[in-house]
Amino acid sequence: MIRSRARWATAGLAVTALAGLSACSADASSAGAAGDTEPAGPVTIEVWGWNAETGEQTAEAFNAAQDDVTVKYVLQASNVATQTNFRNATEAGSGVPCLVQGFAPLTTMVVNGWAQDITEQVEGSVDLYNEGALAAAQVDGRYYGLPSGSDGQFLIVNQKTFDKYDVEVPATWDEFVEAGRELGPHGVDITNLAGEDPSILMNLAQQAGAEWFAIEGDQWVVNFTDEKTVAAADVLQPLIDEDLVSNQTFMDKPALYKYFDSGKMASTTTQWWSLTGLQTNLADSGGDWSAHPVPQFADATAPVTPGRTLPSFVPEGCENPGAVVAYTDWLTTPEAIEAGRNAETGAVSFPVQVPDASDYVDAVVPEDFFVDDKAAGEQIVTAQDRVIGKFELGPNYDAWFPELQDQWGKAVAGDITLQEALTAVQEFVAADLDDKGISYTVTE
Amino acid sequence: MSVRAQRSRPLFGWRTMQSLKGASFTLPFLAGFALFVIVPVLMGVRESVYTTQSSGLGFGGQTVEFAGLRNFAKGLADGAFWTGMFRVLLYAIVVVPLTQALGLGLALVLDAARRRTAARFRIALLLPYMVPGIVAAMIWIYQYSPTVGPITGFFALFGLDVNFFTSSMVWVSMGNLAVWSALGFTMLILYGALQSVPHEIFEAARIDGASELRIAWSIKVPFVRGSLVLTSLLSIIGTLQLFDQPVLFRAVTPETITRDFTPAMMIYDQAFQVGNLNYATALSVILAVVVGIASAIIYRFMNKEES
Lengths: 444, 307
Description:
The complex is a heterodimer of chains A (444) and B (307). Chain A is built from 18 helices and 13 strands. With 444 residues, chain A is α/β, with parallel strands linked by helices. Chain A folds into two domains: 2-150 and 309-361, D-Maltodextrin-Binding Protein, domain 2 (3-Layer(aba) Sandwich); 154-306 and 396-442, Periplasmic binding protein-like II (D-Maltodextrin-Binding Protein, domain 2, 3-Layer(aba) Sandwich). Chain B folds into two domains: 12-37, no CATH class; 72-306, Orthogonal Bundle (MetI-like fold), CATH 1.10.3720. Chain B contains 15 helices and two strands. A two-stranded antiparallel ribbon of chain B has the order 1-2.
């Protein structure tokens, strides 16, 4: 806290000298104009997010904790509403906030000219964040996003089902497939692959070390079919071919939870924020689940955890990125985490961006869900510790992701193979980049 | 005196003034129509003759260039767009006549019933039409759910294993939903038209020995043909613009309902996913022209039959 204040005091002085304490929201701009002629009060920054539970109370706690920056939290209805309102403000050229909760991948923000380069401001704070959070905030080695924690994946297994059929919990993806083969004859699916959600393929590719997009000089290198991605596909393809998985949609939540609760699904990868929902809806199987590290690839040199995030960003036009970084740095402090405690549930938000979140893990492990709560908490912390954070999604993610969904749906239904799906997506990406005039090369 | 009379004569005659006064009542509508239809259409047409281009990594901002009719040429040659168009046309061929036939049947039954009974059923049948399309799709997705929905269980009672989410059944699932939603509106329009048929004709027919079925087929149906044209046109226009139902059903059968499954879905995808607003507006203009042509053909065909 003291450190954070000191950093802001320095940043605040610099901003005062350079920018006359002008702020970037409409209200703040007028305050800034006044600041040209007389000493101004605190810089006001507008923050847009959809945290209805604790966003405002956290901002108020920050305002009370120091006098240099005033945060005005503007609650948005949702991710989509934030995107719409932000587009409108940008098009109108007025009312653009200083900090926006990430609603799309960071590279998309940069390509659209929305996120500003805040490398200078972030570099002084890197020791406050874990590696995954720092990696996720970068595009082409520059910070365009604020360090934002990725939600590390871990595996939850229905221990009762595994014990019943005497199957070992898999530590590698090869063992995962084998476990599926052992459970299949008993009418148990090793996991669920929803036809509309290819995120497990993306997570596996990220974990394997694939780079679907990379930057080389002034062009993108596109590669959806490298050996790392093929390795990821090779985990899932036999599960699909041998009918060892289910295809329950996330759209039909009651059916999904009923199936999860039935003991007919042996495992799923998940992340900390899903646990409360699972505990609430899996009434019958509560207490049967155990947490484990996400399986590793057999040739992995060190255990890693897939996990991505949509980092918050400072929009172009905000004149006080230093004030924003001061606020987000403060959010890593115990005082800020406590300020974010939900008055109704008593839970704090798990600080996934900090190097060690172990002090807060008890609050996110739900009661009566795991066989061993302490072990589950340790797995959550380990997952956060190993999270990769960065998986470059290129300049046209919004365009190609629906195509990946289409192709994934066909692959999961067995109409095509995953390799064919990935090749089709790569062709789509190439055609779309051609249309947009963006330079690229496809690695064969 | 005559000079003074000439000078005081108003600029327009009283008939013209009356007409202008009458026409002025349409001004609020015309202003709204211009603002919310004409202006957006013109803006859309303008948008469709430009193209947005990036360069390098795409980080350096975008430039807007005049593209002429290039977006339209691309749209006319776009296989995915026309496949989607053909798909909804086929769907319309089944769903539209089915909706009209069932709506007409219900209207005839209500017309034959006592007025109080008809009023009760009219409201009940109109309820699905009042449900927003997205909500209706959500309701039916739960009804269809093989795990928690009641319909699969109902068919299971007869030994039938029916899954409404499979790719072969998704058309039936959506068609049923479309008919359920549109039936009340079609029935209401046709029932209203039936009410305006002079009852003396029915009495004359009955005296001549015509059965109720004969009266319905030979008198009532020809009288409501104009309303049938209207409801058919609205139904066709709605079907060609099919969007919200397949978008929601996409979640349960993504292998069948792709992002460019219908023309409207493809336009949405181009505008808000791919980010090619120029191409999306060009496709919108093409779709509007197709809907216009289809409506004109149906209108002419049905009116010709009537004359």
